[in-house]
Amino acid sequence: MKIKDRKTIYEGFYTFRKLIIEQDGETFEREQFESGHAAAAIVYNTDKDAYLFVKQFRYSAGMELLEVVAGVVEDHDPEKTIRKEIEEETGYAVDHVKHIWDFYTSPGACTEKVFLFYAEVSKKKSEGGGLDEEHEHLKVLELPMEDLLLQKWADAKTIIAVQWLAAQEQVFLKKPETKL
Predict the structure, then answer these.
(1) Between residues 114 and 35, which one has the greater pLDDT?
(2) Is 119 annotated as a binding residue?
(3) Do 70 and 140 have their domain in common?
(4) pLDDT at position 41, please?
(5) Are 101 and 164 a contacting pair, CB within 8 Å?
(6) Which of 132, 20, 117 has the alpha carbon at shortest distance from 78?
(7) With contact defined as beta carbons under 8 Å apart, do 154 and 67 qualify?
(8) Any known ligand binding at 85?
(9) DSSP strand E in the chain: where?
(10) Closest CA relative to residue 70, chosen from 79, 59, 82
(11) Exposure b/e, 85-108, CB count within 10 A at least 16 = b
(12) Fewer beta carbons within 10 angstroms: which end of the chain, N or C?
């Protein structure tokens, strides 16, 4: 498989491209969604023995989601980005950060790669809650491990981060009650 051509068909907050792909002598078109890469972190408050998550309305999901802290990677530096995002979103300065894993969110159509981190915090520097100019209206929630294990997570990066944490702690997530 080879990408023969790539054209921008829409450029706004996000970018869409049309690709011409050649495979086994045939050519066909596909669309590609570009949103930039993201840095995300599961954040542990060492003083309170609790994990920090942010709740915000996500228009594509049509509801509020509880998520790990995250943001679009700036200056090709995921660690610098996640340190900045943690302070902006939670108000805490980062004491320690460790890189966990990188993964693509939906590689069949989207170019986004998430750089996932574990971070520890203890000192509040500001109010947090996100930036007004980025139209962020975040609520910060602190969850002890036992509550974290009971949540019904809907966001993929958060599920991956929580599964990683559960594996580190050698505990299991509880299957939430679901209605079909």
Answers:
(1) 114
(2) no
(3) yes
(4) 98
(5) yes
(6) 117
(7) no
(8) yes
(9) 2-11, 15-23, 26-34, 38-45, 50-58, 63-67, 69-72, 92-104, 113-124, 139-143
(10) 82
(11) bbbbbbbbebeebeebeeeebeee
(12) C
| 28 and 43, same domain (yes or no) | no
CATH code at 67?
Answer: 3.90.79.10
Backbone angle region of 25, left / alpha / beta, with phi > 0 → left and psi within -120 to 50 → alpha:
left
CA 133 – CA 156 distance, rounded (Å): 26
* Nearest partner of 154 among 34, 57, 73, judged by Cα: 57
User: How many angstroms separate the first and last alpha carbons of the chain?
Assistant: 40
Domain range for 27 is 2-34
Would the pLDDT of 175 be above 80?
no
Instruction: Provide the domain count of the chain.
Output: 2
Average pLDDT (167-180) is 74
pLDDT at 134: 63
pLDDT digits (tens, 9 = 90+) for 102-141: 999 999 999 999 999 999 999 998 877 655 566 567 999 9
